[in-house]
Hints:
The chain is 26% helix and 24% strand. It is an alpha+beta fold. The strands form four sheets. Strands 12, 13, 14, 15, 16, 17, 18, 19 and 20 form a nine-stranded antiparallel sheet that branches. A five-stranded antiparallel sheet has the order 5-6-10-8-9. Strands 1-2-4-3 form a four-stranded mixed sheet. Bound molecules: flavin-adenine dinucleotide (FAD).
Amino acid sequence: MSDPTRIPGVEGAIVRKGDAGYEDVRSSQLWNGYQPRRHPDVIVRAASVRDVPAAIAMARAEGLRVAVRTGGHSWCGAPLRDGGMLLDLSALRRCAVDPARATATVEPGMLSAGLSRTLAGAGLAFPTGHCPTVALGGYLLSGGLGWNSGEWGPACASIRAIEAVTADGEVVRCDERENADLFWAARGAGPGFFAVVTAFRLALRPRPAAIATTSYVCHLGEVESLADWATDTAEELPPNVEVAFTLLTDAGSGEVVVSLSGTAFAGSHDEAARALAPLAGAPLSAPPLRRAVAEPTSMEALYARAAEVWPERHRYAADTLWSYADRGTLLSRLGDALSRAPSAKSLVLAPLAPASRNRELWRDMAFSALGDTEVAPYAVWDDPSRDEVNVRWLRETMASVAPLGTGHYIAEADLSADDSRARRSYTAADWARLGALRARYDPDGLFHSFP
Length: 451
Ligand SMILES: Cc1cc2nc3c(=O)[nH]c(=O)nc-3n(C[C@H](O)[C@H](O)[C@H](O)COP(=O)(O)OP(=O)(O)OC[C@H]3O[C@@H](n4cnc5c(N)ncnc54)[C@H](O)[C@@H]3O)c2cc1C
């Protein structure tokens, strides 16, 4: 008798709606505890790259639309659709490093901290995402704003080639010469990409020998002057200093505070300290709650801190806005909003120029930085009965800064908020080009497009 959990040519397991265990598999597809109630007909868990063309052939034969999932970190649950096939690539985690060429060929399921650790052994690095468990698949396809991107650019700028399976089941290699259009789209289309990426060939960097951070935590009343000062000071900083604001509730006092941090990735501690020097003397009207100057740190410590910022097994609603507005105005509006947040776990991140000031690093790709600040408010809570009030807070917060915005970052935009979020994540020309390429590469709409 044939096994209903297997398909010919596919090594990985499949589970269909109605099967015992379906709900456990479905709900484990997303990292976020707050999930859309959407139900694919069948979930195929690829065991190897070879399973992907076979799964696409099955979807075509059964008339199923296909959604793809790698790490499941899409805040808005993009991989989870009603009906059709969900193709789960999370088990595809192979990584082959070529230290002599400073390149790696990586499958999409490799996680950020895992890649960082693997490369460290070879004295190499990559602009991996800030969260340790973000998978390369969706991260690189969306652009990827990771560690030290001021110097290295968005992560997708370091993709040299991809291997993908197209809607007609063909395995294709794409780079700047071969299938160049698909390669262009794979660097930024994110949840709107119209093929399945099974491998990325990445250019690597020498691993920074030292990392150091200068940081302040201050009363919220300082936010405007601190933001104005940091804006001027950032001009003096070399690109290997990553500057970010965080608005959060201080766990001890319950007060909403502003934190400013500069993290330098350098060849030695002295070099890092010199790079951070302009950030040492913030003009504050009161002593800061905490201050550290050129404190040595490590990738492991940065990832441990990120895991605290985004705790696992919580409920999240997130959104983003690119802006060229005055940072003092932008951040004080967001600080006011955070003071009204229903959950003290909620926070706002605001990196300065997270895609690098060097536009050459993100030339000729679907991704564009549409502002010089990216703000990302996160509603974070754990009680399901508080879903509505937390989502409403996020929407109201975004509405309060919408007039200052110039677009969204597709990796973290709340695509469920309105129909125009995806379009406003691209320049008009790039959006038109993505639409034309989708019509060419996936004329029957096999793959789901932006949610
Ligand atoms: C805690 C947390 C921290 C984050 N930090 C950062 C950060 O520092 N920088 C940043 O840039 N982003 C960050 N993000 C956003 C993150 O990059 C995106 O959510 C990204 O989509 C995650 O990748 P994933 O593989 O988990 O995506 P998934 O949720 O698995 O997939 C999202 C969509 O991408 C497409 N997709 C995924 N893999 C493939 C593939 N192999 N082939 C074709 N299409 C595919 C699908 O359309 C899918 O719907 C963060 C997200 C979270 C939850």
